[in-house]
């Protein structure tokens, strides 16, 4: 589904954040990119999403290079650490918005059943008329995940989606994310620096350090330094 081939990213200031990164992600897998802050996890997500351009190497979706495909045509949903909801819109409007703009836009009447289906899946129906600013962190992240999923992307990218939530909520939302990803059958790449989090939700873990992949393993087979 996703092939990352000899991917390198050198920033304009001369710093090389990724040094020849290679991995393949199978369709339907939930993969964690795990590693300490600064090891290049977000850079990989941003390259997959098209928010950054690689210095060299290639990224393929289902066998075709997407390096020159515009971000909006990559069929990706992105969930950020800080939720990134539109503050002036209600929850319903936030979730509806991506379906009613751009090249593949559909009418509100066509979009509503899809929006209602996904708001039911993520249990945010009761929040539909509220503004993001009045919601808890967990509720806001549910809205952000719903907004990413209604577009039915092939790939869901999540960049530290739980790090602004308190410990109890973190456990709950991560279980919800895993369940949702499996229910919808999407391919997901989840960035975290939290070992326990990665071990608990991933099908496989890509362990990174200083811009390289150190291990790519099943959670139970990952070797962790004592
Ligand atoms: P992670 O997500 O693992 O915390 P990042 O991918 O955000 O790491 O960053 C990897 C490294 O690249 C870090 O050392 C970071 O400071 C550096 N970096 C990120 N963006 C830029 C940039 N635009 N210019 C220069 N260095 C950057
Ligand atoms: P993260 O949430 O992954 O830790 P950061 O807070 O490190 O991200 O970075 C936030 C933004 O700043 C990103 O867009 C990143 O590309 C950019 N950035 C990070 N490090 C640097 C750097 N050393 N020089 C320039 N930009 C950077």
Automatic annotation (TrEMBL):
Keywords: ATP-binding, Nucleotide-binding, Transport. Residues 2-226 form the ABC transporter domain. It comes from the Bacteria. GO terms for molecular function: ATP binding. This is ABC transporter ATP-binding protein. The lineage of its organism: Bacteria, Bacillati, Bacillota, Bacilli, Lactobacillales.
């Amino acid at each position: 589904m996703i092939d990352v081939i000899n991917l390198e990213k050198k920033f304009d200031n001369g710093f090389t954040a990724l040094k020849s990164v290679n991995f393949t992600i199978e369709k339907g897998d939930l993969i964690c990119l795990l590693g300490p802050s600064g090891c290049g996890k977000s850079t990989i997500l941003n390259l997959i999403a098209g928010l950054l351009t690689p210095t060299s190497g290639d990224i393929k979706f289902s066998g075709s290079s997407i390096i020159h495909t515009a971000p909006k045509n990559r069929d990706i949903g992105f969930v950020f650490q800080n939720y990134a909801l539109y503050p002036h819109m209600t929850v319903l409007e936030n979730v509806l918005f991506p379906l009613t703009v751009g090249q593949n836009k559909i009418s509100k009447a066509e979009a509503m059943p899809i929006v209602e289906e996904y708001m039911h899946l993520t249990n945010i129906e009761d929040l539909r008329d509220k503004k993001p600013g009045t919601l808890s962190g967990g509720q806001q992240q549910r809205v952000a995940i719903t907004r990413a999923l209604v577009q039915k992307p092939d790939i869901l990218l999540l960049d530290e989606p739980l790090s602004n939530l308190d410990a109890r909520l973190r456990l709950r939302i991560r279980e919800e994310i895993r369940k949702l990803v499996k229910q919808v059958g999407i391919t997901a790449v989840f960035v975290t620096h939290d070992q326990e989090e990665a071990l608990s939700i991933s099908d496989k873990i890509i362990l990174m350090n200083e811009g390289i992949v150190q291990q790519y393993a099943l959670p139970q087979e990952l070797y962790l330094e004592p």
